[in-house]
């Protein structure tokens, strides 16, 4: 197609610009192969005859028609549909596949349509922002993207047999320019490309919508494909099983704005998220969210929350492995502050896999680890609401965080035990007053309408107030009994004074001496039912505990001590060796609201009750007697009774403000009554 100097108007080639678009129909119909279709703006373009080479930058404003029997088409560059009325996209595929395909200039209500067969695009595909009428793949049409795809205007795949394919490793699709891709009426979006970082990206302001107008649309994320959602992803089908996510796939919610929607998923395998990741701003679930193969809350540098509302985030575990859960992968422990607000559920737990493993719940530091899996629940749910009053809340003593436990059915009679760690934020504890201090934080079972009871033992605490989360951990939590965290109860975090009772003979500073495996705090009441010694070691070889760690609060042992040997040998025994915590041998029974080695207690009470009058106290309390008592006396020999203060070096001084005695006091040191 040429003229004298290729200048039809005397100044420029015909069809070289949009203004000089060739009217009518241009038919390229040479029978010999390798006819070249020139780069022009056409109104109607038709092909017939032998093999064709389509030059880069061919624009068709109305109809593109290819006669039956036409030879192979080779597209050298970009082919444009730029009509201002409804246009049909010719479904070129196989050897005839488009190199690049661009859709332009469609007004509102005048879409570009792909119907009846497959259009393959080897290079880039662009549904341009100027194509306001959008593009629709329908009536059995298939758009097969092989490289970079981008949609900036309305885009749809509708109808049974209709599909958009993003399946080869180099394929990817981006929904951009605040546009929407709508999948409806059994239309299918299939993404299995391994393109990184994501084969499918929903830009900020844009939407992927899987609709349910009649038969729902379908979405399949397969193999190891990834989808990045910076904008919005919605599935409106009630059952949610129209969306498939295989285990190796990843969906990332990366919106930086507040309350990005976290799309709900179905519970059935392959219809729950494979790997779910989040970053950016806070997220808000629009239904129950199920995760099958991995959860990573916040891959970025700024923590955020996922608000579940009335819904549940459930992590499902496989028969052979626990599903990994992580928070704040780019942050250290002190900076980790992301959490799930609302219900978080572990589903499919099995004792063989769960034993000894830390199961992460609503944040990095709220965890449960089963130390005995006998009859353990198959599911555990924790409902966490920050700055919300738990059952039996007392603002002066309790952390203002509601943590509610729920258990699923068990594999047998529940007899499990666990270590439970609960995190909270500093602002949730600002109401503590009086003697209540975070360093005295303990765990309580708090049912509705029933007073709470303290549970667990061997408490561990992280109380660095510069960190995003503080936490307390308790061991020995059970499903029932004195350490039972009951189904449906709140886990109350209380910093109130406690009644701490001995469990066995041992040194005061040894956690195992006490039932809750935690040394008493300065505001506690300590009940002594065994032989308990202070300030020195008694060796393992003689049947004692061999514990050499000094007492943490020697000048504020407890606010009150009760020595009760009405049913057993009970004695509080003071002495001193190289492990004595106070160089001057001073020990104080007295209360205090802070917990430092230098804390000095006041107002302490010592009650000695229940003495056996048929037995006589020890007579000799000299330094020699002390050395024998500490070094050679065995656990098989008779025990001490009452209050015993040996003569040692340094000589112990025991100070208490109030003393009540109906038993034995045996003193070869100093006993001071009254605070200084």
Topology:
Blueprint: E1 22-28, E2 35-37, E3 41-47, E4 52-54, E5 58-60, E6 64-66, E7 73-75, E8 78-81, E9 87-89, E10 100-103, E11 112-115, E12 118-121, E13 125-127, E14 135-138, E15 142-145, E16 148-151, E17 155-158, E18 163-166, E19 172-175, E20 180-184, E21 188-191, E22 200-202, E23 207-210, E24 218-221, E25 226-229, E26 232-235, E27 243-245, E28 250-253, E29 260-262, E30 273-278, E31 283-285, E32 289-297, E33 305-316, E34 325-327, E35 339-347, H1 351-354, E36 358-360, E37 367-372, E38 379-386, E39 401-407, E40 417-424, E41 442-446, E42 453-455, E43 457-462, E44 470-477, E45 490-494, E46 499-501, E47 506-507, E48 525-528, E49 531-534, E50 560-564, E51 571-574, E52 586-589, E53 605-609, H2 623-631, E54 642-645, E55 653-656, E56 658-661, E57 665-667, E58 670-673
Parallel strand pairs: 1-3, 2-4, 3-5, 3-6, 4-7, 5-8, 8-10, 9-11, 10-13, 11-14, 12-15, 13-16, 14-17, 15-18, 16-19, 17-20, 18-21, 19-22, 20-23, 21-24, 22-25, 23-26, 24-27, 25-28, 28-30, 29-31, 30-32, 31-33, 32-33, 32-34, 33-35, 46-48, 47-49, 48-50, 49-51, 50-53, 51-54, 52-55, 53-56, 54-57, ...
Antiparallel strand pairs: 35-38, 36-37, 37-40, 38-39, 40-44, 41-42, 41-45, 43-44
